[in-house]
Amino acid sequence: xxxxxxxxxxxxxxxxxxxxxxxxxxxxxxxxxxxxxxxxxxxxxxxxxxxxxxxxxxxxxxxxxxxxxxxxxxxxxxxxxxxxxxxxxxxxxxxxxxxxxxxxxxxxxxxxxxxxxxxxxxxxxxxxxxxxxxxxxxxxxxxxxxxxxxxxxxxxxxxxxxxxxxxxxxxxxxxxxxxxxxxxxxxxxxxxxxxxxxxxxxxxxxxxxxxxxxxxxxxxxxxxxxxxxxxxxxxxxxxxxxxxxxxxxxxxxxxxxxxxxxxxxxxxxxxxxxxxxxxxxxxxxxxxxxxxxxxxxxx
Length: 299
Known about the structure:
By secondary structure, the protein is an alpha/beta fold.
């Protein structure tokens, strides 16, 4: 009941984002950008993320971040995250200036739903070299959900982080944040323990969240792209239309979902070794490409 109510609430209040055959969209989630400490799970993939974001920027893609972009449960100050990954935020700023950036908030960066928080932390950043504040995401709006609308197909794609299907990380997010900040982060930082309240680190919890989202999709006959569980998902034609971007904190890769030429695909960026022993970053297609129409015609 909680999942149906919350996901429907978000869907009914979401802004529409038009797209057509010429649209190029890359969806990623769960970057969990941190402060560079031992507990920062994004740190080991920062170079992969920078290469991928540079590729998509140069190719003319719009970047849609589906929640938990910044780890604001473990870390109190966004400014420290921005300083740690200034090169990535410079890229994101360039997307934003060209109107090619959309940020959806998840449970770990739920504070971004607060306009005053955005004004204080995301509108500007302090440039230490220039010794003054510079625009970052000036006047940015953030979203709990978005609806991609294709007028030609007459179909919609619902974009949402997915924690709404997880009572503990949605309604009780403040308690989850307390446990992460004051219990699990010290244990992870000093003893290597993992947070078992997170669906990304608890297999049974992950499956429960996925089942809840799938039930909502089947009941409402919608196509959904989500994050939260960190498990990439790409259905076959005829199956429930539940897609998941995966995350940017996998041990050896980052994953995402692309839409280009009205085709959708699940992709992976990873570091590979060439025959001569040098390392390189490569993009691989895990699933697809598949025409969106082939899914819509089955819905």
